Structures are given as structure tokens and as C-alpha cells.
Amino acid sequence: MSDITIPGGKIRSFVERIENLDSEMQELSEQKKEVFAEAKGEGFDVKILKEIIKLRKEDKNERDERESLLDLYMRAMETATPEQAKAA
């Protein structure tokens, strides 16, 4: 065997910290589910709430640019004739 010393206490510390974080994340996930269930119970659409949360995380300028492009594409598609669609 080699003379390499493995710091078992340090490894245990990292592993236990990660396990504790995993446990906390699971608890938070359960709490999040409970909040969504409560909102649903009060008549709110959970998909829409999740969409709002997603949008609030985005950069406003990027979101505005994406929405402008989406609007532009939708208007272009709506004004296209069937012949134009076939030609593409």
C-alpha cells in the first residue's frame, strides 16, 4: 500500500453537509408543493403561477425582446396566405 493519508474526517464533513443540504432541499420542495396545492385549492391555475415565476426570473429586456419577436412572428403567420405557406 502507499503512504497516502486520506482525511476521513474532512470527507465525512463534506458528505454530511451535502446530505443535510439534500434533506433541506427535499423539505423545501415539499413546502413548495403544499403552497401550489393551497393556491389550486383557492381556485388559482398552477400552470399560470409557474409561468409567472418563470417570467419573473428572466431578464426584463430579454423577455421583452422575446415577446416582441413572438408577436411579430404571430402577426406574420396570421397574414400569410395558404399559397405563401406552401411556397416556404
* Quaternary structure annotation: single chain
| Largest sheet, strands/sense/barrel | none
Mean pLDDT: 92
Task: State Rg.
Answer: 25 Å
Cα separation of the termini: 70 Å
Strand content: under 5%
**Low-confidence blocks of residues:** none
Number of strands: 0
Choose one word for the global shape. Answer: elongated
Q: Which structural class best describes the helix and strand composition? A: mainly alpha
Helix percent band: over 70%
Elements, N to C (H/E): HHHH
Helical segment count: 4
Organism: Bradyrhizobium symbiodeficiens
InterPro entries: GapR-like_DNA-bd
Keywords: Coiled coil
Protein name: DUF2312 domain-containing protein
What does this structure look like?
The protein starts with 7 loop residues before the first helix and ends with a helix. The protein is elongated and about 75 Å long. With about 90 residues, the protein is mostly helical. The mean pLDDT is about 90. The protein has helices at about 10-40, 45-55, 60-80, 80-85. It has 4 helices and no strands. Pfam families: GapR_DNA-bd. InterPro entries: GapR-like_DNA-bd. It comes from Bradyrhizobium symbiodeficiens. Keywords: Coiled coil.
SSE layout:
Blueprint: H1 8-41, H2 46-57, H3 60-79, H4 82-87
Coiled coil: 11-38
Protein name: DUF2312 domain-containing protein
Organism: Bradyrhizobium symbiodeficiens
Please tag this protein with its features.
88 residues, coiled coil, mainly alpha, GapR-like_DNA-bd, elongated, 82% helix, 4 helices
